[in-house]
Amino acid sequence: MIDRVRRRALAVGALSLAVLSWPAFAQWQGYKTPGLPRKTDGTFDAAAPVPKAADGKPDLSGIWMAPRIRVDLAQGMKKGETVPFTPEGKRIFDERRATNSKDDPGARCLPTGIPVRATLQTPFKILQTPGVTAILYESRTQFRQILTDGRSLPKEVDWPAWQGFSVGRWEQDTFVVETAGFNGKVWLDQVGTPASDAFRLTERFHRRDFGHMDLEMIIDDRKMYTRPWSTFAELLFQPDTELLEYICEENERDSARMVGK
Amino acid sequence: MHRFLLSATVCAVLALSSAELRAHHSFAAEFDSNSVVTLNGVITKVEWTNPHTYFHLDVTDNQGKVTNWAVEGGAPNALYRAGWKPTSLKAGDRVTIVGSRAKDGSNLANATSFTLADGRCLFAGSSGPNGDATTNCRQVTR
Predict the structure, then answer these.
(1) Is residue A244 within 8 angstroms of chain B, CB to CB?
(2) Contacts of A6 in chain B (CB under 8 A)
(3) Does position B2 have pLDDT exceeding 50, yes or no?
(4) Sequence-ordered alpha helix ranges (H) in A64-113
(5) CA dihedral A97, A102, A106, A109 (to 10 degrees)
(6) What pLDDT is attached to residue B29?
(7) Burial level of A96, CB count in 10 A (0-12/13-18/19+)?
């Protein structure tokens, strides 16, 4: 573990060196994001206070990314907890594990589960505006709208969707996003944690300081799980970078070659 | 010494971004991390595409027989952030690639590192357990 930490520290040091010595990609990567808190040496000050929006709430806007990759949401559960599968949920999950997730719709460039997007170590940008907060995910060029104009989720969903429908509200300094209306096709993560059309997701975003955000994702699906369960992710603010293009369908050749075993 | 430092820097930087490359699909459904292959050859074609880059190379064996391999690398955005450009590797460049072979038995691998003719070692986007760039680069440049 220490070795890993040391290696990462080395890598971070090397990255700063490299950014200094590789001006070629400075126009889009390495361009100093204006308006960020900086230390006297010009580096980003992640410990600076949380910025506020015009309405006085924390402003979550910016590019965020997990510090390490997790393909399995169970890895983000509290110590000692396990995913409370129903027999049907367990059957589906075991089947997907047995075939190494070869049938993951995400591998065919279809949408990935919202929870795993926060844990795959791919960047996404939050744009917080009055009435709507948008999340732009670099991976596969996906986006979501979280409506904050006071409406509530529809009681009946007449158009089940891959990403469902999201509304957001503030509970003190925590942005709480509720999403329902899923179509039951999406996999929640890359190991195949399942979701049915009864899936409801609650995300609780809490920005700790300028550079750090805690995210709790509460997964509620009475067909797949015996009770709601939580998985946690840490997000790091990404200074001096910008989202890049990712057109997944361009040259997708993996799915046809997935033998599974 | 300067060259060593450059290699170390490049490898470490690419290690940092390596995990970003794993996002597209399950590694184990397609590749076998226990079947490591080292390919020394000449690049014939580069596909700078999503969801994965592909580097095709001709590998000549001891008997002089030439086999064309395809090597899957990370997504362009991840490689770009790590300092790559679409022209970083071109047809005609000599390269040594370490990777994991495809389970379907074809001449396909998932790259864990590239070593260029000048000794620079580039991590190339492993999706699997062999994807520790620093270790892999050390192996091939030793």
Answers:
(1) yes
(2) none
(3) no
(4) 87-98
(5) 180
(6) 87
(7) buried
| Beta bridge pairs of residue A234 | A214
The long-range contacts involving A156-161, CB below 8 angstroms and separated by at least 24 positions, are: A157/A181, A160/A184, A160/A197
Domains and CATH numbers, chain B: 2-141 (2.40.50.140)
Identify which of A15, A120, A244 has the shortest CB distance to residue B16.
Answer: A15
Chain A segment 162-181 residues within 8 A of B by beta carbon are none
Environment class of residue A84 by beta-carbon count within 10 Å: exposed (0-12), middle (13-18) or buried (19+)?
middle
What pTM did the predictor assign? Answer: 0.83
CA distance B68 to chain A (A): 17
Span A235-244, average pLDDT: 95
A230 touches chain B (CB under 8 A): no
Residues from chain B contacting residue A64 (CB–CB below 8 Å): none
Confidence of residue B123 (pLDDT cuts 50, 70, 90): low
Does A18 reach chain B within 8 Å, measured CB to CB?
yes
Residues of chain B positioned with their CB less than 8 A from the CB of A100: 26, 28-29
- What would the two tokens of residue A151 be? 């409406």
Say what the pLDDT of residue B23 is: 55
pLDDT tens-place string over residues A107-164: 999 999 999 999 988 999 999 999 999 999 999 999 999 999 999 998 888 999 999 9
Q: Which residues of A touch B26 (CB under 8 A)?
A: 71, 100-102, 104, 107, 190-191, 258
Helices B2-18 and A2-21: crossing angle in degrees, nearest 10, is 110
Inter-axis angle of helices B133-141 and B2-18, nearest 10:
150
pLDDT tens for B19-49 read 334 557 788 888 998 999 999 999 999 999 9
Q: Report which secondary-structure segment, H or E, holds B14.
A: helix B2-18
Token code pair at residue B50: 């999503």
pLDDT in tens, A37-61: 999 999 999 999 999 999 999 999 9
C-alpha to C-alpha distance for A73 and A81, rounded to whole angstroms: 12
pLDDT at B124: 59
A102 in reach of chain B (CB within 8 A): yes
